[in-house]
Design goal:
The chain is α/β, with parallel strands linked by helices and 331 residues long. It has a single domain (15-251, 285-311), classed as Rossmann fold. The protein has helices spanning 15-40, 55-62, 78-83, 88-95, 129-143, 161-172, 192-195, 201-206, 220-235, 265-272, 276-286, 292-315; strands at residues 70-72, 149-154, 177-183, 186-187, 190-191, 212-216, 241-246. Strands 1-2-3-7-6 form a five-stranded parallel beta sheet, with helices on both faces. Helix 6 links the parallel strand 2 and strand 3 (177-183). The N and C termini lie far apart (58 Å). Bound molecules: thiamine diphosphate and magnesium ion (MG).
């Protein structure tokens, strides 16, 4: 394996950038650990879909984005939002259903959006982000400023009609869109090997006449490199690109654990050994990018950010009953 300190192809492995990616991955992990804990403690109305185990994907992909690029997320969206720069205090407040949250406490975890920084929203409807991102990519093309859209979606979303429609339109119109498919092997408890005809998402995407790749989604450097190649193609006007990131979700489908997790225990344990954060931390240490005390400092900073977000969320007011019909589409 190449040392991270060397230049490899066009990837400039700048130390600050690498450390920043590590900090982002850790922030995502600690955010979702804490949000899950707060749900279990009863502090949160509703539920959360933890992104724990998949942190390398949002982090590696978003590290290639520039101002003005847009992302569309899904129900497992906290990681995408943090990697694109969302404010963790307003995110946590939304998870807590508080007035200071991104949707004034009326949307919850699955509806967080921040248009100002290009986050067009998480989404509770499986597959629904795909046509939104296709529209965003069309808008980017019409604007002519070289911006792109990225849509994050799971293996389960590939069985929705919106997947087929979006892939087709993006291809015939050559839209600047990256399809970032997070294949975490299951949709709830259904294995993708059962749910996907032909068993191969890349083959399916190729049929829409776009370039494809399939990479280890638990290796942030591999993710970043695959996304860099794809985004370069997309930004240059080459049309859409499909990348499958193979990964695994550590938790049950959502927290609280109302649905029994029937995935094989050995499979879960085997994937935990491929923890994207531990793997990246080892590389950073081995290649002399960080020292253990520096890692501890990052851990302390991240815990401080998460503690602050929880205090902010706890101390914020609930939305007022008289505001219930404001900011909603129909009443
Ligand atoms: C249209 C639609 N069908 C079903 C559901 C219920 N549901 C929520 S998440 C999910 C599984 C999605 O799997 P995948 O896309 O692989 O994402 P993952 O949860 O694995 O991250 C299902 C079936 C839904 N929210 N929307
Ligand atoms: Mg899945």
């Amino acid at each position: 394996m190449d040392k991270l300190t060397k230049r490899d192809g066009k990837v400039t492995r700048n130390n600050a950038g690498l450390i920043n990616m590590y900090r982002t991955m850790l922030t995502i992990r600690r955010f979702d650990e804490r949000a899950s804990q707060e749900v279990r403690n009863g502090a949160v109305p509703g539920l959360v879909h933890p992104y724990i185990g998949q942190e390398a994907i949002a982090t590696g992909v978003c590290s290639n984005l520039i101002e003005g690029d847009r992302i569309v997320s899904n129900h497992r969206g906290h990681g995408h939002l943090i990697a694109k720069g969302a404010d963790t205090r307003r995110m946590m407040a939304e998870v807590f259903g508080k007035k200071t949250g991104y949707c004034k406490g009326k949307g919850g975890s699955m509806h967080i959006a921040d248009f100002g920084i290009g986050i067009l929203g998480a989404n509770g409807i499986v597959g629904a982000g795909l046509p939104i991102a296709t529209g965003a990519a069309l808008a980017a093309r019409l604007d002519g400023k070289g911006k792109i859209a990225v849509v994050f979606f799971g293996d389960g979303a590939c069985q929705e009609g919106e997947f087929q429609e979006s892939m087709n339109l993006a291809s015939i119109w050559k839209l600047p869109l990256l399809f970032a498919c997070e294949n975490n092997m299951y949709g709830v408890n259904t294995s993708y090997t059962y749910a996907i005809a032909g068993g191969d998402l890349v083959k399916r995407a190729s049929a829409y006449d776009m370039p494809t790749a399939s990479v280890d989604g638990n290796d942030v450097i591999a993710v970043r490199e695959a996304a860099r190649i794809a985004i370069e193609h997309v930004r240059a006007g080459g049309g859409p690109y499909f990348v499958e990131f193979k990964t695994f979700r550590w938790s049950g489908h959502f927290v609280p654990e109302a649905i029994p997790d029937t995935r094989p225990k050995e499979e879960i344990e085997a994937w935990k050994k491929k923890c994207p954060i531990v793997r990246f931390m080892r590389r950073l240490l081995e290649d002399g990018i960080v020292t253990r005390p520096e890692l501890q400092k990052i851990e302390d900073q991240v815990m401080g950010i998460i503690d602050e977000a929880v205090v902010y969320a706890r101390e914020s007011p609930l939305p007022a009953p008289e505001d219930a019909l404001d900011d909603v589409y129909s009443a």
